[in-house]
Amino acid sequence: MRFPEKVKLVEVGPRDGLQNEKQTIPVEVKLALVNRLSEAGFPNIEAASFVSPKWVPQMATSTELMASIHRRPGTLYSALVPNMKGFEAALAARADEVVIFGAASEAFSQKNINCSIAESIERFREVATAAKANGLRLRGSISCALGCPYQGEVTPAAVADVVRRMRDLGCDEIDIADTIGVGTAVQVQRVFEQVATEFPLAQLAGHFHDTYGQALANIYAALSIGVAIFHASVAGLGGCPYAKGATGNVATEDVLYLLDGLGITTGVDINAVVDAGQFISNHLGRPSASRAGNAIAARRSPEHAA
Ligand code: HMG
Ligand code: MG
After folding, report:
1. Which sequence spans correspond to the domains of the chain?
2. Whose CA is nearest to atom 50 of ligand 1?
3. Of 113, 120, 246, 256, whose CB count within 10 A is highest?
4. What is the percent of the chain where pLDDT is above 70?
């Protein structure tokens, strides 16, 4: 067991969380959410996505959003970019970090970004060069690292292969993503152990969706081998439009409750995140998917006090 003392928690709710919502969310609501999350103290917020609006209509307001957010010193604001068109938009929007997103499964790569893994790497090469030339941080995200909705099993070797290619593009950080939340604890450890032979463990992140209720166990398993960067989504929002049946990311409030209990510091104020979670859930008209968030909110409510 070699738990980290400190974890970098990346809040992905405004992007991964909201991209899958059917109802159009006004940019003012997204703005209020990002500003609340900034105030909560996250070192990194994935705020936007510069993809085709035909593919993901909800992200079409990314330019407007990025122009209006209150940028907290100490927070990096990231944006997904699938190609140079997305990169140019992210650069103009003053993103601090761009995220190129590929997959460890050929079938998912085709469904999500309409090209093979090899073609995606070639597309990313130009983006990576431009990111470096403009002084932007570069992150790589690898979907279906623990299983694919179309092809089923994905081997750790297939994940390591994409990690190697993203490393060679110059990624500063690489995300191991369980897009459909099927992974289990020991499998997670095996994948991280294998990919850590290609890329420093300290720069690898765990991105877990909670479809099968395994995300917290998977985070605990990853923590125990030293993984120190995790993604989470306020109120457990999320899903991928190109991964049918996949539910939200692990809820940020639940991850913070776990980390606080382990004495691992994040610099993030759980109470402010609970408020942000209640805010967006009220707007969406459904209860938050965060167990800890709802429990903390209920403990604070006047009925509970009475
Ligand atoms: P394509 O149709 O092959 O691309 O899509 P194209 O180059 O032929 O362009 C088609 C049209 O899209 C053109 O417009 C382009 O201008 C436009 P038209 O001439 O038809 O009017 N276009 C763009 N518009 C705005 N911004 C752009 C852009 N690029 C082209 N950047 C493409 C290829 C990659 C664009 C498309 O497949 C796409 O946008 N895919 C994005 C899918 C997506 O966003 N998925 C969700 C994010 S990934 C995720 O959630 C997983 C993650 O959370 C990790 C995990 O959990 O696994 C990160
Ligand atoms: Mg995701």
Report:
1. 8-305
2. 240
3. 256
4. 99
